[in-house]
């Protein structure tokens, strides 16, 4: 068995700290964490501390699909590391690392000046996937989730 690695990057117009916190607040999390069409969130429980566990009960066609794991590292506002286990991983632990990097312009200046809004590059890496099907399913799911975060953050920042 040769473990596979998935890597996804997404640029979002928001500060790293705001995006980071959206991953750790259960109420906010349940508003944007949707992995595809027809997927809903039944409940979210987050014990956001190293060693703390989380449970995300997604719904599809009337069925509850639990996704669970444990936080390994929480380095606000730059890095989250946690295990991820679900039916789609054959109930095996995988490892997810998410980094939040402020994007700088070509001159090396912070983009958070008076003319530009802050921007963040989110990089999501999932390790220990076993099959190409798992990689494909998780690529689709995480891409939709990051799109949901982008959309929700855009609405959140308008308030």
TrEMBL record:
CDD domains: SRPBCC_CalC_Aha1-like. Signal peptide: none annotated. InterPro entries: ASHA1/2-like_C, START-like_dom_sf. Residues 13-152 form the Activator of Hsp90 ATPase homologue 1/2-like C-terminal domain. Belongs to the AHA1 family. This is SRPBCC domain-containing protein. It comes from Leptospira bourretii.
